[in-house]
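ingest -> validate -> predict -> emit
validate: passed (alphabet ok, no gaps, 196 aa)
predict: started
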Amino acid sequence: MVRRDMVTIPNILSASRVLLLPVLVFLILLKDKTPFLVAYVLVGSTDYFDGLVARRFNMRSELGKTIDSVADLFFYLSSLVFIHILFPEIIRLNHTLLLIFYVMFSMSFVVSWLKLGKPVVMHTQLLRLNGVLVYLVTALSFFFLEHTIYVASVVLVIYFVALTEEILIFLFFGNVDPDTKSIFHLIGSAAEQQRA
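emit:
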């Protein structure tokens, strides 16, 4: 049974990113890029608005963080599939970097499962930045494909750093707030506690 406090605007916005993925797939199958681009931009923008509404109207919750994490995971991994279908040259030219990304991404889930007993998706500043960059690479590839091929390489390298940070957070700090800004914030907090 769904409780009333679970149905909030931020949770609905987050869930819509997953629920509307079949619409994006359908639009790709139509092979008309313009409706896909418009729908992709609208669906992806919910990642910004769910957090904005949650912060502004004090609607943050653990359930909301979980829904947002799951929605991010599905949306951004789906974005890789969309890029593969629409712009296969981006995938072809970044093949090795993508393989490394998938290995590191899988490692972060394994480490979180082993250390915390569950898979955890962090929202560090670097991972948030990468979410925005993946979104932009997908959208801008419609207009600047020759440039976004190389931007995609940079995004993947930033992901390596972000996923390494995430793994280190799990290993050295264990169960922390998934919205932790960075490992440096955790180190600073630990140093302050030791001085106190």
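Residues 1-78 form one domain.
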